[in-house]
TrEMBL record:
Belongs to the bacterial solute-binding protein 1 family. Keywords: Iron, Metal-binding, Signal. Fe cation binds at H31, Y216, Y217. One of its GO terms (cellular component) is outer membrane-bounded periplasmic space. GO terms for molecular function: metal ion binding. This is Fe(3+) ABC transporter substrate-binding protein. Residues 1-21 form the signal peptide. It comes from Candidatus Dechloromonas phosphorivorans. The keyword Cytoplasm does not apply. The keyword Signal applies. It comes from the Bacteria.
Length: 336
């Protein structure tokens, strides 16, 4: 009888442990419509329940940092190599060993401790009546005195611009990168402000002649159901920069398993799930991005409308490596 009771107690305890272990705490800066299916399908496949904490990218990073070793977070998902690099710098991620991730995610799209699950490109937007397409074919052209008083930008401290600058440092070296930054500052139509969509609007309105934007903002506007936004897009042209040289700068959204993760095994399972064909489609489509896994095909009319292009294959490791230098260069150039 006593043995039976002990066995029963052990069984209950291990059952409780099993139930408790089948959870995953996801800190995510993503909140798109297709994410519901993304998460519920994982739970259906694995029985692992996902507890989601959603927030702004930088706030979530702060939160994980402040929670320290008590953090319940298993995975941190965010956008831009700059932010993923920051999480790495803070020592928040742990390297994971996964044959699935190694084989599915291209080498240039992951580091030792974080993986990209989708890609976005940084393109040049120009006003068709005030700027000629042939004058804005390369990122370097943004520094050409020809564009004096025409260039608009969001802040030089923003991750999207920092990562682009990091790619320029990686390709051309610091000295050239600084010349480029100074040239852009000399071409400002106004002091940097707003987000990518604000730059597109200002270009369309003629306040600026040229600006930079991530592709998903362009895709969103091209696919808009609002007549005024479609009209706005008629006035702007989109250029894939650096097609004759390094290719258009690519950034990513992705994530990593946290060093303090209480549910490490479940976290690795979820990372592997994100690299699956099905999850890749949801993940990329949710924000008009491209899947990181090359064999996955998506049918996204907004992206198709942008056409094909040559992408820069610079490893995301290099983008991460030059973040601090990128900020120093923008600061020295007065690119606020
Ligand atoms: Fe964005």
């Amino acid at each position: 009888m006593k043995l039976k009771t002990t066995l029963l107690a052990t069984a209950i305890a291990s059952l409780a442990f099993a139930v408790q272990a089948e959870e995953l705490n996801l800190y995510s800066a993503r909140h798109y419509q297709t994410d519901e299916a993304l998460y519920s399908n994982f739970t259906k496949q694995t029985g692992i329940k996902i507890n989601r904490i959603e927030g702004k990218e930088d706030e979530l990073l702060e939160r994980i940092k402040n929670e320290g070793s008590n953090s319940p977070a298993d995975i941190f998902l965010t956008v831009d190599a700059a932010r993923l690099a920051k999480a790495h710098e803070l020592g928040l991620f742990t390297p994971i060993s996964s044959k699935v991730l190694e084989s599915r995610i291209p080498t240039h799209l992951h580091t030792d401790d974080w993986y990209s699950f989708s890609t976005r490109a940084r393109v040049i937007i120009y006003n068709k009546s005030s700027v000629k397409a042939e004058d804005v074919q390369n990122y370097a052209d943004l520094a050409n005195p020809k564009l004096k008083g025409k260039f608009c930008s969001r802040s030089g401290s923003h991750p999207y611009n920092l990562s682009l600058m990091a790619s320029v440092i990686a390709h051309d070296g610091e000295a050239k990168a600084e010349e480029w930054a100074k040239g852009m500052v000399a071409n400002f139509a106004r002091a940097p402000k707003g987000g990518d969509t604000d730059q597109i609007k200002a270009v369309s309105a003629g306040e600026c002649g040229v600006a930079l934007s991530n592709t998903y903002y362009v895709a969103r506007l091209l696919r808009s159901t609002k007549v005024e936004e479609l009209k706005m897009m008629e006035k702007v042209g989109v250029v894939w920069p650096n097609q004759a040289t390094t290719g258009t700068h690519i950034n990513v959204s992705g994530g990593g398993v946290l060093k303090t993760a209480p549910n490490k095994a479940a976290a690795i399972k979820f990372m592997e799930y994100l690299a699956s064909d099905e999850a890749q489609r949801y993940f990329a489509d949710g924000n008009n991005e491209w899947p990181a896994v090359e064999s996955v095909k998506v049918a996204n009319p907004a992206l198709d409308a942008l056409g094909k292009f040559k992408a820069d294959t610079l490893p995301v490791k290099n983008l991460a490596m030059y973040q601090t230098k990128a900020q120093m260069i923008f600061d020295r150039a007065g690119f606020k």
